[in-house]
Structures are given as structure tokens and as C-alpha cells.
UniProtKB/TrEMBL annotation:
Pfam families: MatE
Keywords: Membrane, Transmembrane, Transmembrane helix
Protein name, per record: Protein RFT1 homolog
Molecular function in Gene Ontology: antiporter activity; xenobiotic transmembrane transporter activity
Length: 213
């Protein structure tokens, strides 16, 4: 999204930039709903592939089923962040991520500690915070005219979708490679027991934080 929006703005074509963002939202909605549906309908198969043992199976299944509902929101946030970066605005994405993170923290305390929802509460906290961050940033884009609602309500142009997929093929390969690596490592960790998979989750979060510094 970022380079395509930036190129449109370099031509002073704000209308095209808005259409590109809208196309990205349509595409991310379709992909996110597809992924979410796949995880909802194939949760058991996914857990078997990941090597979940009997001890963690019910907890992992609960978390996966609820967590899958956030798939569209995560992709909306990526598109919205890309659009903001294309407009050379880094403050709005930072604000959205900060708001989402703070809400996530509060919801963890409320849902896990106070309401005793355990992993279901943890997953629900992720879902709600992701949608909040995504909708906050999308609202900002609409308010500042970066995304026009008239473009968002218009059906997507197939040629633009193809352009999106072609332009982002290198990033797609990189992302799939990283996720494939994390998936394999998580699968090995799950087969080694709950302590190992818990340590792996902490290490991955630390690595993700370090990559942002």
C-alpha cells in the first residue's frame, strides 16, 4: 500500500490514492474473512498439524477459535498503516497501536483476572483491541480525506486488485516465509510440552518488540 499511495501522491492524484486505499480495504476484508473462516472450520486439523498435546489442546482450541475473529482487523490495520506511511504520517499509526495496546492491557486485567475467563478472555482481549486500533486508524484516514467513503462503498476494480498483488509479491513472499518459520518452530515447541511453548511465546514477543526498536 505505501509505495502505491506514495506514487499517486507524487503525481498529486489524491483521488487515485484514496481509491488505492479503498481497494486495499476490500482485499484485506476478503482475505481476512477467508482466513478467519478457514481457522474456524479447521481448528482441530490446525492443532494436529501444530502438534498440540492433550494437555494444551482444549485451551489452544478455545484461543484459536476466538482469535481467528480478528483476522480482518489485523489486515485492515496493515492497509491503514501503509496508507498513513504513504502520506508520510507516522503519528497516526503510532497512536492507533498505542490505543490498541493500552486497551489490550486493560482488557487482560478485566477479562482474565477479574472475570476469570482465562485463555478465552486473553483471546477476546486481542480481538477487541485489534478492531479498536484498526477502526481508530480508518476513522482518522476518513477524517483527513485520505480515504473517501464514496471509494470505500464502490465495488473493487479487478485490475487494481491484480496490481496490488503484483506490487506486493516480494513482501508477500517475505511475510509467508517468516510466518512459515514461526509456525514450524511453534509446532516443535508444542510437541516438547507446555513449558517450552510458553517460553517460545515469550521469546517471540521479545523478538517482535526488538524489531520495532
Amino acid at each position: 500500500t505505501t509505495p502505491m499511495v506514495a506514487r499517486a501522491l507524487a503525481r498529486n492524484d489524491t483521488a487515485e490514492a484514496s481509491r488505492l486505499v479503498a481497494q486495499g480495504i476490500w482485499l484485506s476484508t476478503a482475505v481476512g474473512c477467508t482466513l478467519g473462516t478457514f481457522m474456524l472450520t479447521n481448528a482441530d486439523a490446525i492443532l494436529r498439524v501444530m502438534g498440540a498435546n492433550a494437555e494444551i489442546w482444549p485451551h489452544a482450541r478455545t484461543f484459536l477459535l476466538i482469535r481467528s475473529l480478528a483476522a480482518p482487523a489485523e489486515l485492515w490495520l496493515l492497509v491503514a498503516k501503509g496508507a498513513s506511511y504513504g502520506h508520510q504520517n507516522t503519528k497516526a499509526p503510532l497512536a492507533a497501536v498505542t490505543i490498541g495496546s493500552l486497551l489490550h492491557l486493560v482488557l487482560d486485567v478485566v477479562l482474565i483476572s477479574m472475570l476469570r475467563m482465562d485463555l478465552a478472555g486473553a483471546a477476546l482481549a486481542v480481538v477487541l483491541s485489534q478492531y479498536t486500533a484498526a477502526l481508530f486508524l480508518l476513522t482518522f484516514l476518513v477524517r483527513d480525506g485520505i480515504l473517501r467513503l464514496s471509494d470505500l462503498w464502490r465495488l473493487p476494480d479487478v485490475s487494481k486488485i491484480v496490481t496490488y498483488l503484483t506490487a506486493g509479491r516480494h513482501l508477500l513472499v517475505r511475510t509467508l516465509s517468516m510466518q512459515g518459520f514461526y509456525t514450524v518452530m511453534t509446532g516443535y515447541g508444542a510437541r516438547m510440552g507446555t513449558s517450552v511453548i510458553a517460553a517460545h511465546a515469550i521469546a517471540r514477543q521479545c523478538a517482535s518488540l526488538e524489531s520495532l526498536v
